[in-house]
Amino acid sequence: MKKVLIAVALAYIGFFLILPLVVVFSTALNKGLAVYFQSFSDPNAVAAIRLTLLTAAIAVPLNMVFGIAASWAIAKFDFHGKNLLLTLIDLPLSVSPVISGLIYVLMFGAQGALGPWLKEHNIQVLFAPPAIILATIFVTFPMVVRELVPIMKTQGNEEEEAALTLGADGWKTFWHVTLPNIKWGLLYGVILCNARAMGEFGAVSVVSGHIRGLTNTLPLHIEILYNEYQFTAAFACASLLAFLALVTLAIKSFIEFKFRAELAAVQGGARA
Amino acid sequence: MSIEVKGITKIFGDFKALDNIDLKVETGELIALLGPSGSGKTTLLRIIAGLETADEGQVFFAGEDIQQKKAKDRRVGFVFQHYALFRHMSVFDNIAFGLRVKPKSIRPTEEQIKDKVNELLRLIQLDWVGKRYPWQLSGGQRQRIALARALAVEPRVLLLDEPFGSLDAQVRKELRQWLRRFHDQLHITSLFVTHDQEEALEVADKIVVMNKGRIEQKGTPEETYHHPANKFVLNFLGSVNIFHERVIDGKRANIYTRPHQLEITHQPKDENSIPAVVEHVNPAGAVVKIDLKSQDGDLIHAEITQGEFKALDLRKRGQVFVSLRQVTYYDFDI
Lengths: 272, 334
Known about the structure:
The complex is a heterodimer. By secondary structure, chain A is mainly α. Chain A contains 12 helices and no strands. The longest helix of chain A has 41 residues, at 231-271. By secondary structure, chain B is an alpha+beta fold.
């Protein structure tokens, strides 16, 4: 029975996960390494990669800072509307990314709430990097919070309170007590956040306007290449994202491993 | 340094945790805040530490109103029930924490910190654990580390919240005797919260019995045990027997006695002796515990010495008489 179950699971994973991955890399490389690397030297590809990196470089740190702040508030304080805040933070996960993108179109578009004001001041948000970054922040916001809240909740307030009675101010307490206690969970959340930020398609697609060399992120660039039957280039770029996914997976496993050891130590300690 | 609280009231939602509390702790005293859970004792301790703010009232340290001071500026040593050691720091770093976070101008040098921590580790008789991490230590060791950490910053008062609450019975006993000796050495004004009357009676100079956000009685262990101010204190400080509706000086009263205040005889001593049947005998211990059932059907718990027990030759289901040597409490309000 056990063997059958394992075989079924393996076959399933092989078909749905491993096979596509193999196809991505084999298609990307089937015309040789030269063509593969040439795909990245195309100016539009370079622009897409740069925009993707820029987006992640802004969205991830912001979500990290605000994620810590929100998790801290939720896990360590009691206030009215706490559950509402938790629900709101989860919203990006339950809403289709396309809708998330549309929200920004409705806000910043020419006919949108802020559209006329923005136009008056000559600020371009929609169909430009700002909207792409905003949409990415929105979609990836829950990643950090969802990792941190359970950790912070189980750890409670006592260590922070102990630090306060020992004369540490809030900032020192955060740096020396809270942050070291949540570092693995935070890293885990940041990795997931980064993977999602670089791979996001739906929300970004709605607000980007698909202007080549200007507002295409890597996923959007791949779609365009694919639609133009440039399979090798499309899959070469896709292999970058696939590679990112593999690296994420590896780091994630490593953190889980470290985290489990630390968790076991702490829990083992709590029992004694 | 003395601690004084005046008119402290704290309300959580519609629950009155503390109701107009006045309390003074003299310099160098070791005082137990004793009460059942929900009596407000931990809340009071946390208000004194500055970890909680009172809705009304004031807290004074050595006569100085410190209500506006934050926890970090009050210079209290606080020991938590679950130790609250910093889990990612070694024992050494835990104890050094309070010294290292001091503002640069008054921070001791790393050399001085090292000396201080080692001195504290010797004081708590754990000088070999400096490099270990909290999770590698037993509960009793961890609580001693927590105490050393609190003492490192030379606090003006020491506040302990159920310090032995998460320890095994054996370790608990050892540690509370240790705390008593420790306090006799250092004489730091200390306040500790407990729900265990035995612990309070054994360790404290004075006991403050709390119930439902109020102080029921403050006194020495002897006073609170032998002369309880009311029925709550009487019941909370140890087991007690009730004898309903006896006549005392022409007035009717319910009489309360501690188990050791009863005498068991085979013949009635006087007209007040109560006929009873032996239900259960437990001779394992310093005293012999005997459960009896009176003629009226009341259960009576008696404790007599091993010598008395031998002389009596009690049999299960045997008929005996119970008389009162002393009475702890008269309740005329019946």
